[in-house]
Every structure is written in structure tokens, then in C-alpha cells.
Amino acid sequence: MKGARIIAWVVIAIMGVNMANVAINSGMDHGVGFDTFLAGSGDPWQLFINNDLVTGLLFMVGWLIFREQGGRLADRIAWVWMIMWWGNIVVAAYVLLALWQAGGDDRRFFLGRRITQLPALRISAATRVASGILALLVTLWTLVGIVKVGFAPIATFGFVMGFAPVTLSLLLVAWPARREI
């Protein structure tokens, strides 16, 4: 399990650097990369890479849905949406959460709620308030971005699909599920 933790943190670090590069050198003012994703589909190799990414994420989403069966539906929706839009940085975060919940038990890691109740993260009141405020700020920033691109369909779709799950995730941190264990 230690190896999985190391890999997850390496993925988060690599993807974090890549996200910083995008933010600095390209920005998110044109639809959070959706236009770039679609533009690359004209090249056979880029289409292959895009499809490889999406199908790999679908495998991860399948495991997450299987593992989280019986949990709060809003949490599953947020995780799935975040994974399908933001990719492997979210996969790595979910793996870290699953490893923590498993406490070293392989069966608990892979099967999750199917075999046992899972511990919920303890979230302080300050973190909950900050998450609520951040959800509001992300929503406002998204709306400003949509207006800035003049409601262009692809960019607007990118903004909504890219940042709505961030807002939802922050709201779920602000209003966490009841503690299970």
C-alpha cells in the first residue's frame, strides 16, 4: 500500500505542475481545455491518446461506483464528474482516500462499502466554511469566464462541465455526509 501512496503523490505532483503550466501559459479563458481536446481529435495519434485516456478513466469510474455503492449519491456523482473532466489527478486523490479508508486491508481498499462501513474524513468547521466560500468564488469565476467568452458554445460547455464539479465537490466538503464510523 505504501507503493500505491507514493505513486498517487507522484501523479498529483506531475499533474499539479502540468496544471500550473496550463494556467500560466494558456489559461482557462477558452473553456478549460475542452476546445483543445476536441481540436486534437483530427490527428489519429491524438485521437488514440484521447480515447486511451477516456477509456482508462472509465475503468476507474467503474471501480469507484462499485466500491462506493451504498454511499451518498452526490459524493459518487462528484467523484465521477471530477474524474471524467480533470483526469488522473482526481484518480490519485481518490486512491489516497481509499487507501486511508482501507487502513492497510486490501479487501477493504478494493471492495470498500461492499464489505464494511468506511470512515469519513473529519472536516473542521473552518474548512467547511472555507469550502463554502470557495464554492461561491468558483461559481462566480465560472460565470465571469462564460460572459468573457461571449457565451461561445464550446467554451461555455467547457466552463460549466469543468467547474461545476469543482463547485459540487467544495459544497460536499462544506456539508459532509454524516460520520459512518
From TrEMBL:
Chain segments annotated as transmembrane:
6-24, 45-66, 78-100, 121-144, 150-175
| Keywords, in A-Z order | Membrane, Transmembrane, Transmembrane helix
Name of the protein described by the UniProt record: Uncharacterized protein
